[in-house]
Amino acid sequence: MLFLDVDGPLLPFGDGLQREVSGTAADAHLMRLDPLLGPRLAALPCELVWATTWEDAANADIAPRLGLSPLPVVRWPEPSAAQEREDRWFGLHWKTRTLTAWAGDRPFVWVDDEITDADRDWVSARHPAPAFLHHVASFRGLTGDDFAVLDRWLRTS
Fold first, then answer.
1. What whole-number distance in Å separates Cα of residue 125 and Cα of residue 128?
2. Gap between the Cα atoms of 31 and 34, Å rounded
3. How far apart are CA 118 and CA 94, in angstroms?
4. Can you say whether residue 87 is alpha, beta or left, with left for phi > 0 and alpha for psi between -120 and 50 degrees?
């Protein structure tokens, strides 16, 4: 299973001021989406799952532009006060706990631009199956090198 974030990995932010594209702000934002990512994602040997605040909008706005069928969507529950305190203590990303629970005892990959070593350590200590938390540089998004690393991990884990 591969948990996929949108902003950063699929919609890179760039490394400087970007020329405005005509149309609505949402359309301009989606112009950064590379349609060639869809076949590369579909070729990975895993189930793809949206792990983004886009939630259902990822299936409506992103999947068709990538040529992907609708994907399962992670829903983000409100954490308890105790969970929020623990997450701050460990320096966890707000998605870490939910994605680990969503995976259950299955191996998973998480692709995001906000993953840190704190998230990796927490998952490693609490998840019963192999997990690979892959950080993507938000200014450039997913690259061929990222796909090679993901494919290799998925085929050997």
1. 8
2. 8
3. 12
4. alpha
What is the C-alpha separation between 140 and 124, in angstroms, rounded?
27
Looking up tokens 């259950």, which residue turns up?
A: 104
pLDDT at 83: 92
How much is the average pLDDT of 47-56? 98
Average pLDDT estimate for 142-154: 98
Share of the chain above pLDDT 70, in %: 91
Cβ atoms of 154 and 44 within 8 Å: the answer is yes
Are the C-beta atoms of 51 and 5 separated by less than 8 Å? Answer: yes
């112009």: which residue's tokens? 31
